[in-house]
């Protein structure tokens, strides 16, 4: 697996070795030894799968208690995936990194705990899979508004994205609960 550094060193892009021929392809989407060699020693406890239509934006989500590290990938379609560092003591606090993940490029992203995470669907639809390092705890879930002017995320969307009611009520970064 090829590990690609991003502008935020703790967020990684993982490019699996894909073996293909006229029958199709095969690759390992998770291998504990390979992840450990990439300095991802996480233990995953939950797998999630979502399907969303074009223009749907999910995020920016995090859990202030029971924080979740996420290993994310797309198995159908394409998304623009974003991680925002919300660790106050971090040198990259308040910075974001974005990447295109798709079924075609087979890239995965490692988003450690201490980050807000979200994505917008660029294709007609996308199926998004992610492993988490802790269980979903709705009472601890928080959301930063997708278009926060302080973060100035360059979402590749035309017009307004489609949001859930919860995501539409996200807080500004300056008012959000963050990690120490």
Topology, pairings included?
Elements: E1 2-5, E2 12-15, E3 19-21, E4 24-26, H1 32-37, E5 46-53, E6 57-63, E7 70-76, E8 78-85, E9 96-102, E10 108-111, E11 115-121, E12 125-132, E13 141-143, H2 165-168
Antiparallel strand pairs: 1-2, 2-10, 3-4, 5-12, 6-11, 6-13, 7-10, 7-12, 8-9, 8-11
What features would you describe in this structure?
The chain is mainly beta and 180 residues long. The protein has one domain: Jelly Rolls (Sandwich), CATH 2.60.120.10. Helix content is 6%, strand content 41%. The strands form three sheets. It has a six-stranded antiparallel β-sheet, with no helix packed on it. It has a five-stranded antiparallel β-sheet with strand order 9-8-11-6-13, with no helix packed on it. It is globular.
Determine the number of helices (DSSP H or I, runs of at least 4 residues): 2
Low-confidence segments = none
**End-to-end separation:** 32 Å
- Kindly report the spatial arrangement of strands forming the biggest sheet: 1-2-10-7-12-5
CATH topology: Jelly Rolls
Named CATH architecture: Sandwich
Radius of gyration: 16 Å
DSSP strand content: 35-45%
In total, the number of strands is: 13
Helix-strand pattern: EEEEHEEEEEEEEEH
Major sheet, described briefly?
6 strands, antiparallel
Under the CATH scheme, which class?
Answer: Mainly Beta
Shape: globular
State mean pLDDT (0 to 100 scale): 96
In total, the number of domains comes to 1
Q: What would you give as the CATH superfamily? A: Jelly Rolls
Broad structural category: mainly beta
Roughly how much helix do the residues carry, as a percent range?
Answer: under 10%
């Amino acid at each position: 697996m090829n590990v690609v550094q991003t502008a935020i060193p703790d967020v990684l892009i993982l490019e699996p070795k894909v073996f293909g021929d006229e029958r199709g392809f095969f690759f390992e989407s998770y291998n504990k030894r390979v992840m450990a060699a990439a300095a991802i020693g996480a233990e995953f406890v939950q797998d999630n799968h979502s399907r969303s239509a074009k223009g749907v934006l999910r995020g920016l989500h995090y859990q202030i208690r029971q924080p979740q590290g996420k290993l994310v990938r797309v198995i159908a379609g394409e998304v623009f995936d974003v991680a925002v560092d919300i660790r106050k003591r971090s040198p990259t606090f308040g910075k974001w990194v974005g990447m295109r993940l798709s079924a075609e490029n087979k890239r995965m992203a490692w988003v450690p705990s201490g980050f807000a995470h979200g994505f917008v669907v660029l294709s007609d639809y996308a199926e998004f899979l992610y492993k988490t390092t802790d269980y979903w705890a709705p009472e601890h879930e928080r959301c930063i508004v997708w278009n926060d002017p302080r973060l100035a995320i360059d979402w590749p969307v035309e017009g307004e994205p489609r949001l859930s009611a919860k995501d539409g009520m996200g807080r500004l970064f300056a008012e959000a609960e963050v990690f120490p």
